[in-house]
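Dig into this one:

. . .
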Amino acid sequence: MNPPLRVAFVVNDLQLSGGVSVVVEHARRLARHGIAAELVLARAQAEPDWAFPGLGELPVHGMEVARRADYDLVVATWWETVGPALELSAKRHAYFIQSLEDRFYKPGEPARLAAALTHDLPLPVITEARWIAETLEALHPQRRCLLVRNGIAKDVFAGPRTPPPRRDGPLRILVEGSSAWFKGVPEALAATRAMQQPRHVTLVAPKGETPEGVDVRVGPLPQRDLATLYAQTDVVLKLSRVEGMFGPPLEAFHLGATCVVSAVTGHEEYVEHGENGLVVEWDDDRGTSRALDLLARDRMLLHRLRWGALATARGWPSWDQQATVMAAALREVARRPPLAANGFDARMIAEVRGGIEAHALVVAERDRLLWRLRPVDAVQRALETPALAWAGRPMKRAWSGARRRAGR
């Protein structure tokens, strides 16, 4: 009998994160497929682990232990884990890409370039969404990505056979997301405040103050509590700007809720406009609020979309089914020829990260200097008005000299 394939998934930490949750869901099920999966922490963490279901079934190591091990396959799971993954001894290395990760950073942020560079490394790619595979293959025609869609915990998100009708009462809206700029939570709440029809808004987010217009704030929540909340919801409102294949609307589908979502990457994996949900544009608070008002008024449409959501949910695979696909993908990577000069790749990633950190210090110092010069800029703009232009010429020359000296 062949020994099990030894696979290490390298994660940044075990804090609450949709991406880490996906890794844990796959890894905990691989033993039944002859794969011994482990989690390796790329960095030390001060906070306790989030209570991911099944996490206790998996060995978890730090880099100091993993560096002494020999693996059949090491899988990076986030751009910052690529360097640590390449440091580990393994017959093969791979990259599990759950989004184009440079998009999580705004233009000009130092980490944006480093994240993008990792996608160009010649690592075999496993991904969770068709749009990611198609994009990476278009950028690198020689690359063939392995697609492993996310599953659903069917025992947790177990909903009704038919959605109970909601003939009256306020539209029950659930908004979910962190404070990250790309999650679109402020925009979602602004759209609910602009509604004309009665609504009840629940916000699932990290702890903090309850924003205006929110009736209930909870979170973060374990999966079973989330399932209970979805069952009490009519619509999940999600206006993200960046996603891989976002889970909350799909989870809510299983409990008989529909969704109103932005046309973010990944929504096309399961959201069909007018069939199981509504798709709206970004930065259109009024259009989004009108879509919500429509569902609040037209309960026949709301019921039909909830029916469609349940139909989509019934056809979606479970985590157990998708673990079979992940096991096949890992074995396929293990059969491929090994990478050449992975030590060079690891050094390159380390050098890029060092450069990014140095650049971040430069940006911080630049921003500090710009803050000092803002009062000067305000005075200069005032001096450019016709009434003050002539009188202020001597002062303007003095301030221009101050700016030049500060920029040296």
Summary: DSSP finds 14 helices and 13 strands in the chain. The radius of gyration is 25 Å. The chain has a mean pLDDT of 87.
